[in-house]
């Protein structure tokens, strides 16, 4: 029987809500899953001490090494055990591999060239002079952390005469040149920021929105679309992220409302693009690191003429918080684990 290891930084699965779903689906698929953290690994005996879900509760067990490892949890916290994890990677296939932060993905796609026409011009700021030069070129820009998450700390900035309109969440200010320069300097002292031209992607009612394209590999090792859905920002905001008050909608009703008879073509456009980008990112990961990617969350916008622009590509996208898709996500992951384990045995 194939044994799947679920690697997490937390020692006990009771503190990881999704662990139960993975354990249950693994059992339903004819495999077993053991939840473990790096401290449970014993290289001398080639065993791990972790937890299996049986009869409604997690039981501590010691098992031989798993045949495949689904590595989840915080990359930052797991990095503290990098020696153990790197040693495991030499013996056991891992499902998930980092594709890097926003700018790493941006440069990889730009250098490859095939999809660079979908990239929003992005530059990591070197200072205030660089910032104002970029603003002069585009007039409406977005200022955000290089390593930002969940739509946090994103600022919209627009030149208005000799002053500047600055929008943070729903708070709007009018700043002078000196005030804006001080604002930028203060933020750059704290962390790295990038700038991009603003892409106007709004509903008929004036709300900002984007699309999340969630793709995974299935039990045959092929890319499949788990979900495509719009995320709509609260009125007056510049971000559509759900963590900042945004909402979600079903794709087809949203497209019919916003695009009428063109809805089907736009649906196909989004779906086709999600698979093209997934294959391309996978090829680049193989080329650069000899690794495969198993799952991506791709955030895109449609501009005023219907062109796709890539906001961000996430390698740990998580499950859509609604639509009852959790089990679809888990099932694809478990089936891909089985595929990967079998492929490793044959290799």
In short:
This protein starts with a strand and ends with a helix.
What features would you describe in this structure?
The chain has helices at about 20-30, 75-80, 80-90, 100-110, 130-140, 175-190, 250-260, 265-290, 325-345; strands at about 5, 30-35, 40, 45-55, 55-65, 70, 125, 140-145, 155-160, 165-170, 170-175, 195, 210-215, 225-230, 245-250, 295-300, 310-315. The protein is an alpha+beta fold. It folds into three domains: about 5-90, 3-Layer(aba) Sandwich (Rossmann fold), CATH 3.40.50.20; about 100-120 and about 200-315, ATP-grasp fold, B domain (D-amino Acid Aminotransferase, Chain A, domain 1); about 125-195, no CATH class. Strands 7-12-8-9-10-11 form a six-stranded antiparallel β-sheet, with helices on one face. The chain has a five-stranded antiparallel β-sheet with strand order 15-14-13-16-17. A hairpin with a 5-residue loop joins β16 (about 295-300) and β17. α1 crosses α9 (about 325-345) and α7 crosses α8. The radius of gyration is 22 Å and the shape is globular. The two termini are about 20 Å apart. The mean pLDDT is about 90.
């Amino acid at each position: 029987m194939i044994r799947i290891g679920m690697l997490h930084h937390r020692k006990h699965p009771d503190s990881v809500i999704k662990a139960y779903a993975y354990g249950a689906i693994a059992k339903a698929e004819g495999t077993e899953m053991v939840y473990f953290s790096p401290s449970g690994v014993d290289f001398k005996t080639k065993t791990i001490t972790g937890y299996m879900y049986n009869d409604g509760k997690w039981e501590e067990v010691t098992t031989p090494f798993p045949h495949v490892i689904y590595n989840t949890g915080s990359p930052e916290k797991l990095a503290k055990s990098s020696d153990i994890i790197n040693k495991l990677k030499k013996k056991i296939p891992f499902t998930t591999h980092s594709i890097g932060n926003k700018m790493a993905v941006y440069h990889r796609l730009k250098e490859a060239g095939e999809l660079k026409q979908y990239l929003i011009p992005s530059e990591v700021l070197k200072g205030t002079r660089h910032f104002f030069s970029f603003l002069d070129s585009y007039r409406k820009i977005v200022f955000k952390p290089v390593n930002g998450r969940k739509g946090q700390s994103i600022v919209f900035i627009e030149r208005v005469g000799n002053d500047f309109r600055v929008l943070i969440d729903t708070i709007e200010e009018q700043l002078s040149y000196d005030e804006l320069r001080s604002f930028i300097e203060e933020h750059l002292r704290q962390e790295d920021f990038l700038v991009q031209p603003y892409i106007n992607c709004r509903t008929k009612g004036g709300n900002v929105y984007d699309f999340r394209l969630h793709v995974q590999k299935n039990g045959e090792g092929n890319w499949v679309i788990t979900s495509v859905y719009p995320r709509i920002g609260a009125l007056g905001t510049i971000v559509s992220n759900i963590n900042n008050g945004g909402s979600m909608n079903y794709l087809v009703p949203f497209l019919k409302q916003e695009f009428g008879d063109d809805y089907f073509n736009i649906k196909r456009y989004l779906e086709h693009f999600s698979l093209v980008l997934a294959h391309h990112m996978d090829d680049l990961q193989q080329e650069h690191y000899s690794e495969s990617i198993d799952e991506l969350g791709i955030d895109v916008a449609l501009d005023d003429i219907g062109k796709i622009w890539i906001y961000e590509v996430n390698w740990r996208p998580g499950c859509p918080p609604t639509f009852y898709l959790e089990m679809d996500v888990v099932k694809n992951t478990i089936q891909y684990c089985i595929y990967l384990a079998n492929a490793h045995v044959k290799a």
